Amino acid sequence: MPEAIVHLLRHGEVHNPDRVLYGRLPSFRLSELGQEMARRAADYFSERGKDGATISYLVASPLTRAQETAGPTAEALGLEIVTDERIIEAENHFEGLSDIRSHLREPRYWRRLYNPFRPSWGEPYAAQVARMRDAIIDARRQAVERGGPGAEAVLVSHQLPIWVTRLASEGKPLWHDPRRRQCTLASVTSLEFDDGRLSAVRYAEPCADLLPGAANLPGA
Questions:
Q1: Total structural domains within the chain
Q2: Measuring CA to CA, which of 30, 39, 135, 206 is 20 to 30 A from 103?
């Protein structure tokens, strides 16, 4: 049995009919489908509990879509939601724009596109990983303090921070093609720890059957 497991849960589908790159904008809520995804995620963690897992700590990004996704899990497991700014969505200079491709042809935005490896249009990948790792370390410790050895924590975050954290955990380059991220809506990326060290990374999609009809515009 691992010393601890930290689950990184991506939020559910967002109501976003204008296909805005919503980033850190506070007003974007879950759609009806996203609410169903949040309930499915709660069922997923409830089943883990029935199978013997001790999920003792629940954290969410301060953004509305993450808080709403965490709600059903909090209710199902009897946990409070701890809000942590460190697992918020990545900063993006194109935040608030829709139809991003058309804007990329405008010269005023070109200065944001010179370095895709950093990336130059937003928060550096390395900075995202650093803040996520700090939050994960704290969550791992809190889970074990509250639930004992083998306890688990759930962190509700966003696609890009979760994905680059996984890449870093697997020793892979942080630069990537956004279309190839394995981090679907309401997916669970699980980090297993032994003796304080990462020993395994696992991935699950509790809402796989809901994804074909979902809008999946990355937030950043």
A1: 1
A2: 30
